[in-house]
Amino acid sequence: MEMKDKTVVLGVTGSIAAYKGAELASQLAQAGAKVEVVMTEAATEFIAPLTFRNITGRPVVTKMFELASEYSVEHVALAEAADVVVIAPATANIIAKIAAGIADDMLCCTVLATKAPVIVAPAMHASMYENSVTQDNLAKLKSRGFTVVGPAYGRLASGVVGMGRLVDVNEILGTIRQVLGRSRDLAGKRIVVTAGGTQEPVDPVRCLTNRSSGKMGYALAEAARDRGAQVVLVSAPSSLPKPIGMDVANVGTAQEMCEAVKKAVTKADALIMAAAVADYRPKKVSKSKIKRERASSLMLELERTPDILGELKGKFLRVGFAAESEDLVANAKKKLQEKGLALIVANDITAKVSGIGADTNQVVIIDRKGKVEELPLLPKREVADRILDKVVQFLVKR
Ligand code: CTP
Q1: I need a surface site. Which of 10, 218, 248, 309 has the fewest CB within 10 A?
Q2: What is the CATH code of the structural domain delimited by 7-180?
Q3: Fold match between domain 7-180 and domain 185-397
Q4: Cβ-count burial of 329 within 10 angstroms (0-12 exposed, 13-18 middle, 19+ buried)?
């Protein structure tokens, strides 16, 4: 619930995508945010203010001078209360108005008066979006520090396919979290996180891999983003949706992961290796599919992959994971020392609740001084934040 205590002013304008604003409001409210919805008059033609009122449990502002909420008395009060202002969907009209500094409705007034960051998610017909006037207006907003998210390419209301669709609600949410994170404890820090299980090819159709879901690494990357870090997620194949608000490098093999991490850590403050990296790969990859022969067995010769965490050293803090099935703390301490890490996060992979693929994890965090902290069973996102608490301590001390 990292949006608790945050006030999000959600501006909804007159677009066919206005209904998606309701989904966004719902997700924000579920994440604990106080959501204040401001609708333009045109927006109320597409969706009823009552929908937003019920979702947010707050009055909805539609007119500048109506006493619908505690904020309507003072036309800049919402602007002052906002931690972030989000306009989703944003029509070409509202974009033009805010670019020009017009203040003839409550949403325009709020945007003009606020010191909070403003996120704009355009939605309009492709020809309106492509018009140089709209492009100039968007460029103007960006140059003033507004965050523009989207639009996406796809089928538009008119049936035409082009640029102009409102981006996915998750993409807007990710952007909001990222923008809100700018004032948090990892602001300005660069964190590289790896996730998922690498795949080592045997032939064009087969590979050696493991059961890692990528959930722990993705939770860490998202938690770091929400705390203000610039995140690079180096991800081995995973079925999880691509996280928003970070650079994502998709890789397959341990070798590819090694190269991507090497590139990413050049300016990094920390590397967190949550990926399950294959320790061995087939020595020879068959160019054609290996056929079933008469012989009852088949030998595959394996060779070592690079030890990414062990070999990549630099000024950045290194955090490892130790997936163990026995002697958890002793084995993890050994890895911490051998790889010269700042921290190691150990978990018992034989336990169902904390094993591979679970949504929860029970870990032990060990630091380089040998201090051992056992965490209770927690959702992976909370485990991620507890790990990052330690990372923050180390980064501050350095
Ligand atoms: N790791 C890595 N490169 C590898 C193997 C592992 O960077 N080729 C990283 C993992 O991402 C993890 C840590 O090293 O953060 C420990 O991984 P683990 O597989 O548990 O340890 P190993 O050192 O491979 O030891 P073992 O498999 O013998 O337990």
Answers
A1: 248
A2: 3.40.50.1950
A3: yes
A4: middle
Question: Residues 6 or more apart from 251 whose CB is under 8 A from it?
Answer: 198, 234, 235, 236, 257, 259, 260
For residue 336 the two structure tokens come to 């911490």
Q: How far is the CA of 322 from the centre of ligand 1 (A)?
A: 7
* Site to substitute for ligand 1 among 265, 309, 325, most atoms within 8 A of C-beta: 309
Mutate to test the pocket of ligand 1, among 277, 312, 334 (most ligand atoms within 8 A of CB): 277
Per-residue pLDDT tens digits of the chain, which is 398 residues long: 578 889 999 999 999 999 999 999 999 999 999 999 999 999 999 999 999 999 999 999 998 776 555 555 567 889 999 999 999 999 999 999 999 999 999 999 999 999 999 999 999 999 999 999 999 999 999 999 999 999 999 888 778 888 999 999 999 999 999 899 877 899 999 999 999 999 999 999 999 999 999 999 999 999 999 999 999 999 999 999 999 889 999 999 999 999 999 999 999 999 999 999 999 999 999 999 998 877 788 999 999 999 999 999 899 999 999 988 889 999 999 999 999 999 999 998 887 777 778 889 999 999 999 899 999 999 999 999 999 999 999 998 77
253 lines ligand 1 (CB under 6 A): no
Q: Does 185-397 carry CATH code 3.30.360.10? A: no
